């Protein structure tokens, strides 16, 4: 009963983290196609006017979903995985690997959030000073690929987060019974242990 309940919790956590992470990546790919291009920028005097872009809101939602997915995975693995009894050395090794994977997933999350943040800032409606190149004036804009990098990192981060959940919440391996252990006989007696010498009781030679 406990094992089936724990399996259900693992499935729920995996689906939740995966859904949030994949949605974050999907929003990143959509934001890449909606980002501000040179055609969306107008020059007014010495200023560049940037029009509103859906990539701004998409990037913010992508950041929030990715961070929530990481928090769910870390809390589930840290609070529920470390309190499991038993497991011995195999559990200690698995826990160390799980912690390393968790740290790596957070590092990747930080990089993805940084890319998302760059995309959000450059797709905010407003004005910026124009750059002069001789008699011509130009406007800076975000080149392609920033949201794509963030989206790919979101997928990598999500897979690492799910892996850390499995490593930290996996039940300890059960020890297999040793061959030759004493087993009860139908009459309630136990058979002799394998490998031990047996002696027959010495009688006095007379029938009772």
Automatic annotation (TrEMBL):
<dbReference type="InterPro" id="IPR009606">
    <property type="entry name" value="DEAL/Modifying_wall_lignin1/2"/>
</dbReference>
<keyword id="KW-0812">Transmembrane</keyword>
<protein>
    <submittedName>
        <fullName>Uncharacterized protein</fullName>
    </submittedName>
</protein>
<dbReference type="GO" id="GO:0012505">
    <property type="term" value="C:endomembrane system"/>
</dbReference>
<feature type="transmembrane region" description="Helical">
    <location>
        <begin position="60"/>
        <end position="84"/>
    </location>
</feature>
<dbReference type="InterPro" id="IPR052222">
    <property type="entry name" value="DESIGUAL"/>
</dbReference>
<feature type="compositionally biased region" description="Polar residues">
    <location>
        <begin position="199"/>
        <end position="208"/>
    </location>
</feature>
<feature type="region of interest" description="Disordered">
    <location>
        <begin position="175"/>
        <end position="208"/>
    </location>
</feature>
<feature type="transmembrane region" description="Helical">
    <location>
        <begin position="146"/>
        <end position="168"/>
    </location>
</feature>
<dbReference type="Pfam" id="PF06749">
    <property type="entry name" value="DUF1218"/>
</dbReference>
<comment type="similarity">
    <text>Belongs to the DESIGUAL family.</text>
</comment>
<feature type="transmembrane region" description="Helical">
    <location>
        <begin position="7"/>
        <end position="30"/>
    </location>
</feature>
<keyword id="KW-0472">Membrane</keyword>
<feature type="transmembrane region" description="Helical">
    <location>
        <begin position="96"/>
        <end position="116"/>
    </location>
</feature>
<keyword id="KW-1133">Transmembrane helix</keyword>
<keyword id="KW-0732">Signal</keyword>
């Amino acid at each position: 009963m406990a094992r089936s309940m724990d399996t259900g919790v693992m499935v729920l956590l995996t689906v939740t983290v995966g859904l949030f992470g994949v949605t974050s990546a999907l929003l990143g790919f959509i934001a890449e196609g909606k980002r501000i291009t040179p055609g969306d920028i107008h020059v007014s005097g010495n200023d560049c006017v940037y029009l509103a872009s859906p990539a701004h809101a998409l990037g913010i939602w992508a950041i929030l979903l990715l961070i929530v997915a990481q928090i769910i995975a870390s809390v589930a693995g840290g609070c529920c995985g470390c309190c499991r009894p038993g497991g011995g050395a195999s559990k200690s090794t698995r826990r160390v690997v799980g912690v390393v994977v968790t740290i790596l997933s957070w590092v990747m999350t930080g990089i993805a959030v940084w890319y998302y943040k760059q995309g959000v800032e450059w797709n905010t409606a407003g004005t910026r000073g124009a750059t002069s190149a001789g008699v011509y004036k130009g406007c800076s804009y975000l080149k392609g690929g920033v949201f794509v990098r963030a989206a790919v990192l979101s997928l990598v981060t999500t897979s690492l987060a799910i892996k850390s959940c499995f490593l930290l919440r996996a039940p300890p391996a059960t020890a297999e019974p040793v061959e030759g252990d004493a087993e009860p006989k139908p009459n309630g007696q136990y058979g002799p242990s394998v490998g031990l010498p047996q002696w027959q009781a010495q009688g006095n030679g007379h029938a009772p």
